[in-house]
Amino acid sequence: MHFRVESLDQHYGSAQVLRQVGFEIIPGECLAVLGRNGAGKTTLLKCLMGVLPVTCGRVLVDGIEISSWPSHRRSAAGLAYVPQGREIFSELSVGENIEAAARAHGTLHTAALDETIALFPVLKQMWRRPGGALSGGQQQQLAIARALVTRPSLLILDEPTEGIQPSIVAAIEAVLASFKGRISLLLVEQYLEFAARLADTFVVLSRGTVREAGRMEASSPELLSRYIAI
User: Fold this and answer.
1) I want to staple 107 with a disulfide (CB 3.0 to 4.6 A). Which of 9, 55, 90, 102 is the partner?
2) How far is residue 205 from each of residues 10, 19, 79, 181, 198, measured CA to CA in Å?
3) What is the domain count for the chain?
4) Other C-beta atoms within 10 Å of 59: how many?
5) Parallel, antiparallel, or unpaired: how do β-strands 30-34 and 15-25 relate?
6) Domain span at 52
7) Contact at 8 Å (CB) between 173 and 197?
8) How confident is the model over 102-114, as pLDDT tens digits?
9) Is residue 121 part of a domain?
10) CA–CA gap between residue 3 and residue 26 (Å, rounded)
């Protein structure tokens, strides 16, 4: 999937949150969106998924504008979203969380279900346990699995390492790295080293505006650190 954002603006009432944001994701690559708290990163992701309306600008998938599409249509077109805070169904079991997503996307009785479960062995062990009974790291793995079982073309993740212990961060990184080249990734992340290892390209948001952008391997760690310092 070739994903492109052009001149995106977004307002909360009279307050402008995003200003002329633009970038593209080459198929199979990972883009990291960096910036301090309050820079507009989560608002951007919600606009891309149709959770929030945009004031102006365009969101395009393979040259087709999807800016006016509702969230469910974007999801059906291949976008999957792992929001900050996970937002799993805490009263449903691990299995029910994953199966609900698979059923909605027609992947329930396909290899996608078994392949997704194999990525996170702990989820198979806790298949019948309520999602709300899992640790924060296990819930994050569940949220990612729920997105991956839909067989997305673009996986969008908002702060996937937030509050997660290092061993689970490493497991999540390994899973995401294994999908590079097969699907596109859009990663909002405060953990710079994690983002740098996964991302091919980056954009830095500051006060809703893109301040820096480029290839990750050509970037300056000092410069990026200055922009994402809290």
Assistant:
1) 102
2) 14, 10, 22, 25, 18
3) 1
4) 22
5) unpaired
6) 1-78+156-165+187-230
7) yes
8) 999 999 989 999 9
9) no
10) 7
